[in-house]
C-alpha cells in the first residue's frame, strides 16, 4: 500500500517568531507517492517539512481578500514553469496583455459580438496564497469591461478572472533552473475565449504550456475521503458522490449523498493512523460506501465512473472544475491541486 | 381564478387554471394543468402548481369529483402518458409462467458468426436475460426520468473491516436520473454493472406507482424494504 508520509513528529510547526502552532486536521494530507506517481519527491524529510495548510502568511491573512475566490466555478490547468517572469513587472504585463487583447479583437477574433467593449486588464499578486516560503506568491489576472458608450460614469464589470498559484510546490521549484518561476496551477473563471487569449499571451511571452487538468476517479476518491474528515464549524452540507454510466442504451446518473455527520463518523473509524492517510484507508472508505449502496440496489458503483465529489469544503468535477467553499481550507485544497498539476507537468 | 375545461379523446378532461389573488387578475401565463379521467380515482397535476395553492386545488377537486379525500402519490415524471401507463397498469407486467421458453425465442445474436468466438459465461448471460425479462416484462417500460430514495437504514459492514458500528441510521439520499430511467436500469445487469435480479427497490417502481421513496430499517430483515407511505 502506498503510504502517506506526512511526518507524525511534533504536530506543531514553529514559525519565525517562535510561536508553536498546531496542525489543523487537514494536516493529515498524505504526501506519499500518491496519485500513482512515485517520484520520490515526497520523502519524509527530517527537517519536518510538514504541509502547513495555514502557512505563516495566512496567519495574518485577511480572509476577506480571498473571499472572492469562494463559491465560483474554476476550470483547472497545469502550467509549465514560466521563463523570465518577474513579479516586479506586473504593471507592464497588464499593459502588454491589454494591447494583445485589443490586437486580437482587431484581427477579428472578436470575443464579444455586438457590444463594443473596452477591456481593462489588471495583474496583481496574492501574497496570502502560498504554502511554503519557497512558493511563488499567486498571481491574479482580471479582465473588466467598460462599455465604451459612456466612459465617464460607467461601471466596470468583472468579466474574467484567472490566477496562477503554487502551494507547497517545492518539489517542482527546487528542481528548476534559475530563470524559471513555478506557478504550476492555473484557475480560470469566465468565457472560454478570454481564457484562450490570456493563455496564448502567457504562452508566447513566457514560453510555457497550459494544459487542462483532469481529475481521475482515483483522485476524486482521495478528495472525498480527505474532505469528509475535515472539521467544519457550521452545519455542513452533504457529502455527495455523483456517478455516471454513459455507455448504456440510455445513460444513467446516480447521485449518492450522505449526511455529513454520518460520513465523517464512518471516515473517522476508517482513518486509523494519525498524521497520515493511506491509499488503503481511502479504499476501505469507498468500499464501505459502495457496499452499503449495493446492499440496497444491487448495483456495483465501482463499475461506474465517479465524476464529481462535493463536500462542505469544496466540490470537484472530473473535467477539472473546482469550487472552493470554505476559506479556512482554501490552501489545503490548493496544495492538493498543485500536486496534481505538478504530476501532469512531469 | 380562471378555469377552462377541455375534453380529449380517451376520456381525459384537461383543466387549465390561471391563478390570481384578491388583488391581481389571474396570471394567464403561469397556468397549471390538471388532467382527470372520469371513472378513475386518479388526477394528474402539473408541477407548476404553487405549493401554497395546492391544498386549495385538492379540496376543490375532491368536492367536484365527489370523492372523500385526495392524497399525493409519490410519483412524478415528465411524460404524462407514462404516468398514465403506470397508474392504469397499461405497461407490460411480468407474469409468472411455468413453461420454459425455448431458447430460440430469445433475441440472442445469431450463432453463425465466427465460430472461433466463444461466449464465455453464456449460461450466466442467459440467466441474466431471463431474470431481467421476468422482472421487467417484455414490453417497453414507462418513461420516467427520476427515482429518489431517502435511506435511513443501518450501516452494516464486513466485521473484518472493523469500521463504523453505529446504532444510528446511516442517512443517505440517492437519486437516479436518466432520459429513460427504467430502460436504463434494465440494461445494467446485462452490462455487468449490477446483479440480476436487480433490487426490488428499483423494480417495484411501476407496480408501486411511485418513484420517491423513504426506506427505513425493517425489523428482522435486511435490506430494509419497509416503505413509508
From TrEMBL, chain A:
What InterPro entries does the entry give?
Answer: CENP-L
What coarse category fits the chief subcellular location reported for this protein?
nucleus
Q: Which UniProt keywords apply?
A: Centromere, Chromosome, Nucleus
User: Which cellular component appears as one GO term in the record?
Assistant: nucleus
Entry annotated with the keyword Nucleus = yes
Please state where this protein is localized.
Chromosome, Centromere; Nucleus
State a single Pfam family of this protein: CENP-L
The family assignment reads: Belongs to the CENP-L/IML3 family.
Q: Which PANTHER family match?
A: CENTROMERE PROTEIN L (PTHR31740)
Name of the protein in question? Centromere protein L
Give the species this sequence originates from: Aptenodytes patagonicus (King penguin)
Automatic annotation (TrEMBL), chain B:
> Would you name any one GO CC term?
chromosome, centromeric region
Q: What's the superkingdom here?
A: Eukaryota
GO terms of biological process kind: CENP-A containing chromatin assembly; chromosome segregation
Its localization reads: Chromosome, Centromere; Nucleus
Alphabetized UniProt keyword annotations: Centromere, Chromosome, Nucleus
The record's InterPro entries line, in alphabetical order, gives:
CENP-NAC/CAD_complex, Chl4/mis15/CENP-N
Q: Which PANTHER family match?
A: CENTROMERE PROTEIN N (PTHR46790:SF1)
Sequence similarity: Belongs to the CENP-N/CHL4 family.
Q: What is this protein called?
A: Centromere protein N
The organism named in the record is Aptenodytes patagonicus
